[in-house]
């Protein structure tokens, strides 16, 4: 009988392993928002380089990057589902405690990104430069309040 129990233990462990190793239901929203933020940073950095004169600028490139930034701003809140502050994330738990404020900051970012997209239509970097500063302030306001320095998980 003792041998049967000893033989059954590894089998039970293997059967139970998937439940122990099951991915968190929050992995997908965390990956989603991380991907959105990476893409936002790519297009923001390009626009910033154009504004500083360190990147060659064409009308098409200015408009395209401003358009992509504006489009990405609209999905930036979608990955912040309740409970997804746990895991490999830099999102503060205060986001969900202060959801209305967080959402308001996200909407300010969206508005600034929309104004930047509109300002870029002329192809004039100078016209877009001032509005890019509004985008910078909107990003910083949210990150200062709700982004942790290191992942929580």
Automatic annotation (TrEMBL):
Protein's UniProt name = Cytochrome c
GO molecular function annotations of the record: electron transfer activity; heme binding; iron ion binding
Q: Name one GO cellular component term.
A: periplasmic space
Q: Gene3D superfamilies attached here?
A: Cytochrome c/b562
Task: Name the UniProt key words of this record, in alphabetical order.
Answer: Electron transport, Heme, Iron, Metal-binding, Signal, Transport
Briefly state the modifications made to the protein after translation: Binds 1 heme group per subunit.
Q: Where is the signal peptide?
A: 1-21
Q: Which InterPro entries match?
A: Cyt_c/b562 (IPR010980), Cyt_c_II (IPR002321), Cyt_c_prime (IPR012127)
A GO BP annotation: electron transport chain
What is the scientific name of the source organism? Answer: Denitratisoma oestradiolicum
Amino-acid positions noted as binding heme c in the UniProt annotation, renumbered to this chain = 139, 142-143
Lineage at the top is:
Bacteria, Pseudomonadati, Pseudomonadota, Betaproteobacteria, Nitrosomonadales
Per its UniProt entry, which superkingdom is the organism in? Bacteria
